[in-house]
Amino acid sequence: MNVDLLIYSAILFLAAVSGGLLVLVRRWSDEHLHFFLSLGAGIFLGAVFIHLLPESMEAENPKLIGFLVLAGFLLLFFVERFLLSRGDGGYDFGHQVIGLTALIGLSIHAIIDGLGLALASEDPTHGSVLVISILAHKVPAAFALVSLLRLAKLPLSRLYACLGLFSIMTPLGALLLAPLIPNGEREIMVQITGIVTGSFLYIATCELLPEVFHGRHRQWIKLGLLLAGIAVISYIGSEFSHAH
């Protein structure tokens, strides 16, 4: 077992937990949570167009990636609208569905992070750079996810369970799933990233943006936070590309 990989996995787990706990240190108002979601929406949009989509298009067959992006989008649409929907379940239930949908998409992406980390950790220089780039977007992702789940007014026990599930996904990908990836793993990971790209696009455009901007109250503040989230992930995306 690679000792460095164990250390990296532990650091990323603790970082994700810490990012989520920032939302739970006090009882925030719905208005504050919507501000957090504005930032989260920018992070998701930036991740799609600055990080995930360019990385996916590195595949040998870009047309296939286009289909996979669409498949990821439709997959979350199907999960939310057909598997999780119970008709008009009310305001809180609607947020629970959105939160669970986001949890699914983020968890898949976290597993891919773990797979990439396992591959990069064979080279100490590449491994340390990659763990920093993963660390940089893991914290805001956990923050945005728990903000969304908190808005759904889930019990604290379920909030902690969802945060723990998301936080363990990168170590799971690095320590348990990476050894199962066959030769040619790079192309497989790029194809999975295409599916994740579609799921993130769905979360950002069909869930977070309508939720954040459904009212007219303090729209400019929300827009500023949206752009700030895009700026943050833009910087992280550039560092991530250097890591590769």
What would your notes on this structure say?
- With 244 residues, the protein is an all-alpha fold.
- The chain has one domain.
- The protein has 8 helices and no strands.
- It has helices at residues 3-24, 30-56, 62-84, 91-120, 124-151, 156-177, 185-212, 219-243.
- Helix 3 packs across helix 7 and helix 4 (91-120) packs parallel to helix 6 (156-177).
- The radius of gyration is 17 Å and the shape is globular.
- Residues 240-244 have low confidence and may be disordered.
What topology does this entry show?
Blueprint lengths: L2 H22 L5 H27 L5 H23 L6 H30 L3 H28 L4 H22 L7 H28 L6 H25 L1
Helix pairs in contact: 1-5, 1-6, 2-5, 2-7, 2-8, 3-4, 3-7, 4-5, 4-6, 4-7, 5-6, 5-8
Q: In a few lines, what is going on in this structure?
A:
By secondary structure, the protein is an all-alpha fold.
